[in-house]
Amino acid sequence: MRRVLSYLNLVCATLFLAGVAFAIAPFDPKGERVHRIAALWARTLLWAAGISVSVEGGEHIAAPPYLFMSNHQSALDISVLLSHLPVPFKFVAKRELFRIPVFGRAMKKAGYINIDRENPREALKAIEDAVARIKGGTSVLIFPEGTRSADGNLLPFMKGAFSLATRAGVPVVPVAVIGTNPLQPPGCAVAAQKGRVTVRMGKPIPMEGKGLSYKAGLMEEVRAAIERLMQCPTR
User: Fold this and answer.
1) Using CA atoms, how far apart are residues 42 and 150, in angstroms rounded to an integer?
2) Core-most of 9, 24, 112, 220, by most CB within 10 Å?
3) Which tens digit of pLDDT belongs to each residue from 48-93?
4) What is the DSSP letter of 100?
5) Residue by residue, what is the 3-state secondary structure of 108-171?
6) Where do the domains of the chain lie, and which CATH numbers do they carry?
7) Considering the entire predicted model, what is its pTM?
8) 11: buried, middle or exposed (CB in 10 Å: 19+, 13-18, 0-12)?
């Protein structure tokens, strides 16, 4: 019964709130109102699925913009992060998500950044777009693994995320999302069971004085930080 409720909520909430987002998008140049609608959409999905989220490390977030870098275990991560990161942000997401009817169009209206991982030229344009957004004062979130991990372990990181970081020059916040994989495993459109998820934010990694040559070092630093956050005992 809960899964049926989740499916019905997914369809109804997406259609209704996407319609609201389309209506206000022309009057919301920074996309902040649309982001709040997206956060509300995400919260309704979590509520319908019976999923609670605890957030740790919010005290580290003080003066955006930031570049958030998170692990990626499940499609559920999107709802969790949309609804619980403490500042508005834009996702860098794979192009396939933008092709989903209604949902994809809403993502475009919200100003999220699509990246074509199979086309290096288009991927570079997406990175340039993200750099421009950050320098304009908007926080951005990216999954440096580039895709979801089937077993919850960190996959190799993609270099493009760290080209973005070194060019943007704003603090990088490592984020660990814990517990989403068993709740919504691959192949499930909605959460398969209720449960609890933890979001942990580490201390921002300053980028002042670190040029493009620090890309490899930053990759190691972010990976180590996310691994530490994933391994901390859950409260």
Assistant:
1) 22
2) 112
3) 889 999 999 999 999 899 999 999 999 899 999 999 999 989 988 7
4) S
5) HHCCCEEECCCCHHHHHHHHHHHHHHHHCCCEEEECCCCCCCCCCCCCCCCHHHHHHHHHHCCC
6) 2-231 (3.40.1130.10)
7) 0.88
8) exposed
